[in-house]
Amino acid sequence: MEHSLIVSQGRVADRTGGALVGARLAGDALSALLGVKAQVVGTPSAPVEDDWTESLPAAADTLRELRSALATALDAGTVPVLATSTCAASLATLPEVAARCPDAVVLWVDAHGDFNTPDTTDSGYLGGMVLAAACGLWDSGHGAGLDPTRVALVGARDIDPAERELLSAAGVRVLSPAASNPDAVRTFVGDRPVWIHVDWDVLEPGYIPAAYRVPDGLLPHQVAAIFAALPAGAVRGVELAEFEAGEPDIPERLSVELILETFQHLIRA
């Protein structure tokens, strides 16, 4: 299957300066691995510690361009691979996936649920509300349509109490790190196509730096084993987000190599 590559370089709720750089570095490496030229969306700008009411309109152009780029990639019959800065970029992609691939399930591989709404968020962070928006719990202005019963959180362990209630009521499958294994994920996916979103904070801190570190995460080989267990040909697209480049304790080169090693298990799938 032919791949296409989309690299997001527009600020989408970035509160730190490393994720846009991380998306570019990951995009460059993926371009070399896949042998395809990346389509770059947006222009980098400085991070801002703002509320979702400010970051959402500020990201409008980037989100529209991302959705258009994804639509073009799907129309071309390719498997899109996206390197994005924050999970909030999925405000653009998930509604397109829901519209184009309604039979697909979504693996949201993330330490967090990202299922808060404007009524439940304590932080005001847009990235913590993206999956709830795609499932129609609040209106981001960028679409919805994702069936929450077709979503599984993989490696989730930092979920707010109100957020957990919303996840339960909506029917989202929540797999803790202990429950996130190849058999459980393969059983959830079954013979259905799958869209994969990875926030690198799903990992135990110390492997691929992320802005929001949560202990007791998955190890890289565990994520790789989950990906390797997916049915061949099932993957319809992959999003890789939240690689916080520039952390002094983890060399960027090693992080990029680990991203590629983990991702390569999805090329077969």
From TrEMBL:
Key words of the record: Hydrolase, Manganese, Metal-binding
Pfam families hit by this protein: Arginase
CDD domains from the UniProt entry: Arginase-like_1
SUPFAM superfamilies listed in its UniProt record: Arginase/deacetylase
Cellular component terms (Gene Ontology): cytoplasm
InterPro entries: Ureohydrolase, Ureohydrolase_dom_sf
GO molecular function, one term: arginase activity
Family named by the database record: Belongs to the arginase family.
Protein name per Swiss-Prot or TrEMBL: Arginase family protein
Taxonomic placement: Bacteria, Bacillati, Actinomycetota, Actinomycetes, Micrococcales
